[in-house]
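Protocol step 4 of 5: obtain the predicted structure for the target chain.
Materials: sequence only (see below). No template structures provided, no constraints applied. The aim of this step is simply to have a reference model before the mutagenesis design in step 5. Sequence pasted as it appears in the construct record:
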Amino acid sequence: MPILLQAAIWISIWSIFAFTGNTSDRLPGYYLVITVRVLAFVLFYNLAYATLMPLYFSDKKRAFNLLLPLLFAAYVGTSVVTDLTLGKPEKMYATIEKKDNYPKKRPLSWLLLPPIFLGMTIFGVAAAFRGISEFENKKKAEEEANHKRLEAEIALLKSQINPHFLLNTLNNLYGISIAEPDKTPDALLKLSDMVRYILYECAQATVPLHHDLSFVKNYISLQELRLPPNATLRLEMPDHEPTWPIEPMVIIPFVENAFKHGLTTRQPCEMIISIKAEDKVLELLVENQIFIQKQTNQGNQSGIGMANVMQRLEHTYAGRYQLDISEDQGKHRVLLKLQL
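Step 4 output (structure tokens):
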């Protein structure tokens, strides 16, 4: 409990005792008694809250069981001593009527029951507040641990997806260098920009969206160098440079997957890639025909990039993305809507 809030509560309690009822016949001794009692409340509460309850929640039950009776006895004893020494009627009230309301010799139960009841109440309040505080601290620690775990998982996913993507691109570049060597310098320049992006910008948690879109453009340009004559690519990209932050390399696996599985030299084929960015919403549409692919030993296992990006979307954009993947009439369609 904040110090200022606690001070306000204790002052309010003191004020209730001091200024309620008939105050005309109260001597200074009355205010001294209630001051001592409220100070005892404050000390007992804070010792219970800051010393006893941490022992309980840290599984030091033996120390807790030993100190609780001692602290409780000290509080009750202080209250009884205060009542016997300072709380006498002749020291607290000016009129004899008030004195007559007090018996000449008060029984022990009359002295013990009020402080015992108040002590139990104060200890219950301290235990409740400490329990709430410990629960919130534990929840916060668990959330922080989960956050760090997710960050580690995302870092691992990035470390897997980047080499996978780079290896596939190098394989494609190797094919270009053999089939059309005159296009190799331009391809190498684009690949250099892509590698620079992977090494320096992908290490960050987020990048401006237009940086990631530039990476996608370079990749598509690289792939266009090796498109067969029978292939048609319909491409739509934003005509502006959106600066909203996005986790790097979230888009590219869907585009790469289309080029990997949507091309053939045996028949005409068409591929659609549409990227729109409006009002902090990214919309990606990728559509390609489905062809049976021969298994090769080159590159990483098929589907690593797609599996990773789906995990990353769930980790980072849970509740802020829609991903629809469908196959119909020989076409594979991906529609991703991402709230940035």
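Step 4 remarks: The chain has a mean pLDDT of 81. The first strand starts at residue 207 and ends at 208.
Proceed to step 5.
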